[in-house]
Amino acid sequence: MSIIFIHGAGHTGELWSDLQPHVPGAVAPTLPGHPEGEARSSVEEYARWLIDRHLGNGERAILAGNSMGGAIALMAALLAPERVAGLVLIGSGAKLRVHPDIFVQLERDFTAAARTLAQLQLAPDAPEARVARIVAAMERSGPAATIADFRACDAFDLRERLGEIAVPTLIVSGSEDRMTPPKYAQFLHAQISGARLESLEGAGHVPQLEQPERVARAILSFTDGHGKGA
């Protein structure tokens, strides 16, 4: 059974590269418009792209999404439940409100805003090389796609539909996540029947970069116990 990693707003599939060697066979596509193609304007549009492009071969897949990627995974599970075997929601939530100042900063000075966002997405003690990788991904995606992604996140709200999620679900939350604090994960855990919550001490919003081996262990334990038999 395949595992598809879905990246977050303004990111690219490359930001899963530390995790992929620990999860055999997993793929990490880059969403359209990052930079090739045209970015979508809503989480639902990204989910439909994912279903059409990566879930059309008849095989069910486990969708593992970070931040906006988790929102896309949730939406795909609602739109095409017969194609989704399980969900892994990493640093994500049922609603992803974006502070208006972020849009102001992205439009005023994209490079400076990308660096600020990269720092916020990591634990406070993150090394500069890790910050630089996120900045590079955002600069590759570019201002238009990044702003479109954050607007899609701001409009996203599935709080009233979580009870419809009927596939095995793993929720991964970093204790130092400043973008989607642990309360977001706790809400998902409370609302999705049978969901498992894995808390990572010291990790921020993108634990696949910060603690890839721990994230891999959580995913493999989940797939061994649930996903492969889903």
Description:
The protein is of the alpha/beta class and about 230 residues long. It has a single domain, classed as Alpha/Beta hydrolase fold, catalytic domain (Rossmann fold). It is built from eight helices and five strands. It has helices at about 45-55, 70-80, 100-110, 110-120, 130-155, 180-190, 205-210, 210-225, and strands at about 1-5, 60-65, 85-90, 170-175, 195-200. The chain has a five-stranded parallel sheet, with helices on both faces. Helix 2 links the parallel strand 2 (about 60-65) and strand 3 (about 85-90). Helix 3 crosses helix 4. The protein is globular, with a radius of gyration of 16 Å. It starts with a strand and ends in a 5-residue tail after the last helix. The relative contact order is 0.18. The model has no long low-confidence stretch (mean pLDDT about 95).
Keywords, separated by commas or semicolons:
single chain, 230 residues, alpha/beta, Rossmann fold, five-stranded parallel β-sheet, 13% strand
Provide a brief overview of the structure.
With 230 residues, the protein is an alpha/beta fold.
Regions with little confidence, pLDDT below 50 for 5+ residues: none
Strand order of the largest sheet: 1-2-3-4-5
Total discrete domains? 1
Q: What's the gyration radius in Å? A: 16 Å
The secondary-structure element order is EHEHEHHHEHEHH
Helix count, per DSSP?
8
Label the structural class: alpha/beta
Largest sheet: 5 strands, parallel
How far do the termini sit from each other? 10 Å
* CATH fold call: Rossmann fold
For the residues shown, what is the average pLDDT?
96
Tell me roughly what share of residues is in helical segments. 40-55%
CATH homology superfamily? Alpha/Beta hydrolase fold, catalytic domain
